[in-house]
Amino acid sequence: MSLKKSFGKSTLWMSAAASGNSLISFVIFIILSRLLAPEEIGLVAFALIVVELGKILVNAGLPQAIVRYPEWDERYAATCFYLNLLLAALVTLLVFFIAAPVIAYYYDARAELLVQVLSIVFLLEGVKAVHEGKLKREFNFRAIALRTVVGSLFAGLVGVVLAFQGYGVWALVWQQLLNQLVVTLVTLHSARWLPGLQFSLAHARALLAFSTPLTLAQMISNFASKIYEMLVGLLLGPAALGFFRVGGRALFILQEIVLKPFEQTLLPALARMSEREQRAQGTLRVMRMSAYFTFPIFFGAAALGPEFIQLAFTEKWAQSGQVMTLLALGIAPLVIGYQVNAALTAGGHSQRVMILASITFALNCLLGFLLVPYGIVAAAAGFALRTYLSIFFNMYFFKQVFAVDISRQLRTIAPTFAASLMMLGIVLLAKYTLPGDLALGVRLLLLAGLGALSYVALMSSIFRQETKHFLGESAAMAPARAKPVINYLQRLLRLV
């Protein structure tokens, strides 16, 4: 199978998994948010930030090293595995005995035990990290997709049952633990690999040389992305963090569905390309394709945020609607940032990835400390502003490494950005002309339909060439069963 076909098939699998998993997770989150108070959501949200940051230290860039290594080597893989186990044990001890008490002192005493129990996740993550890298380098994204959906469904159902029985925050904790356990077991089974009793100091030194700057970059990048939530929790309290988390939850689901598949499959694909020009062209093509359908989704989410939050989460969470709108406006630049990071990582430029992450972190800290004290809406606005400021640093580094001018990078996504912005204006204008007594669900459907029709009309007329390119690329990567549908669309729009 060609690399393009492998990438296309893998992306479809990850899209299907992300869609199924995210929809399941979102429905469960809605149920739990209706049963729990904002303060309870905020307590677990802060604990999960610690878990997400700790996972980065556990993985330490080693799964990426497995993916980009020229060929599978048992000694190399075993060395990765034992390094991961060591890191998992160290992170677990660090979080249990140091991080948890610090969080109890500065945030909320009730969060200490939650963080300590959730530290079990690090051990499970360390066991599966190399096995996951093996699945990715083999483009076995089908197994990754299935484990994600199964884990999310099983753990989510248990979480809902516990919440109905009055377990409160512990319903969310057990949901996380069970999900991680299922994902780990399925990953180990699917990889069909056991590490031998071998360890290479030479491989360990090479691994650490590659992974250390990459891990620092990922740590800084994730810490930067979480700094607003952390500051909201520390400065405004658990309840405010609960409202902020609900406002961003729908966007997180959308990112999992439309951005994560490209992010996860692009690195293995680029790692198989040996020439700089190949990597540059491959990244630009994915950037252009992903922007075509991700930009209108997130700009549409920005337009419909308040109505969606009230409909899904009830009036109790109404103030999360403005948060969703502002956060959604800042997602578009992340589409470019994810692909640039994948290209730099595939080329071994982990130090540049770390520098980019450091810039993002500095901007987030500056804007966060300035704006969070003014409330969760100001915090969301600061996050959106940061994404637009930092994207030019991503483009500059991409230019340095791959010799692609910033103007060319901007031209790659300019048509879809312009069409999405126009669609946003149309929907916002319609919002204020619809009757005020219209049922919320009907109002939401009408506005969503108008947005979709507006975008299709704009891309089929003003930005016709962009649609022709998108359908052509889709036909080249799609499975045989999907090609008749794409060909029909090409004929219908007269783009053959």
Encode the helix/strand succession as letters. Answer: HHHHHHHHHHHHHHHHHHHH
Provide a count of the helices.
20
Quick check: average pLDDT?
85
Distance between the termini: 26 Å
> What is the structural class?
mainly alpha
What percent of residues adopt helix (DSSP H or I)? over 70%
Which stretches are poorly predicted, pLDDT < 50 over at least 5 residues? Answer: none
How large is the radius of gyration?
A: 22 Å
Q: Let me know the number of strands.
A: 0
The largest pleated sheet is described as: none
Which descriptor suits the 3D outline? Answer: globular
Q: How much of the residues is beta strand, in percent?
A: under 5%
Entry keywords:
496 residues; mainly alpha; globular
Textual characterization of the structure:
- The chain has 496 residues and is an all-alpha fold.
- 85% of the residues lie in helices and 0% in strands.
- The chain contains 20 helices and no strands.
- It is globular, with a radius of gyration of 22 Å.
- The two termini are 26 Å apart.
- Helix 4 (74-106) packs antiparallel against helix 6.
- The protein has helices at 3-35, 38-59, 62-68, 74-106, 111-118, 120-137, 141-164, 169-191, 201-236, 238-258, 260-271, 276-313, 320-329, 332-346, 350-371, 376-402, 406-431, 440-461, 464-477, 483-492.
Brief rundown of the structure:
This protein has helices at residues 3-35, 38-59, 62-68, 74-106, 111-118, 120-137, 141-164, 169-191, 201-236, 238-258, 260-271, 276-313, 320-329, 332-346, 350-371, 376-402, 406-431, 440-461, 464-477, 483-492. It is mainly α and 496 residues long.
